[in-house]
Amino acid sequence: MIEVRDLHFHYPQGEFRLEIPEFSVAVGERVAVIGPSGSGKTTLLNLIAGIFTPITGSLMVNGVGVHEFGDRERRDFRITTIGFVFQDFELLDYLNVLDNILHPYRITGALTLDKTVRERAERLAGEMGIGGMLRRRSTDLSQGEKQRAAICRALLTQPKLLLADEATGNLDPSNKTRILDLLFRSVAEHEATFLAVTHDYELLPRFDRVVDFRGFRADTA
Ligand code: ADP
Ligand code: MG
To answer: Which ligand is nearest to the CA of 10?
Structure first.
């Protein structure tokens, strides 16, 4: 599902360099990524999602070279294939919760927003415990509620690849377990691949494999 080779990336500003000689994730695999803050975990997820482009190297997702796409194709590919739970949620302040969850369907012609999708959105929100908040502005939610709205948005498209950046970081213990169960259930139902960045070592046994980001950095110092 993901194949990274000799990837090199840096931001236009700053000293940070990301070098990944080899990293791959098999179809259906559930992989946790750990590593110190600032090591480039979020950067890697953004590269995989095609939000950033590698300087050199190749990056294949679902059999296609994301880096070879034009901007528009890359965005359509991301929206239809990948669910991304961002570390800082990236909800749109001017939309209510339901419209945030439905947003992927409104920004690409590659997806059709119909009754089934709306019903799925409401069901997901209910399962996430935010079913009663759909008409609220997203700015009126707590951090944990925003996080759950962001998870609903990522799952709504039934993505083949789910990327989660600290997706349970703002949830209390009981919500955390419930929402993780839901994430894993959704991944299993859609035979999806799951790549999750986490600082929560308690969660690691739930994954097939744990990748420590320090491994990538060992030869770049
Ligand atoms: P992590 O998710 O592992 O905490 P990040 O991928 O967010 O790490 O960041 C890796 C490094 O890149 C950090 O040193 C961070 O300061 C830097 N960085 C992140 N975003 C930018 C940016 N837009 N411009 C310049 N440097 C950035
Ligand atoms: Mg991060």
So the answer is: 1
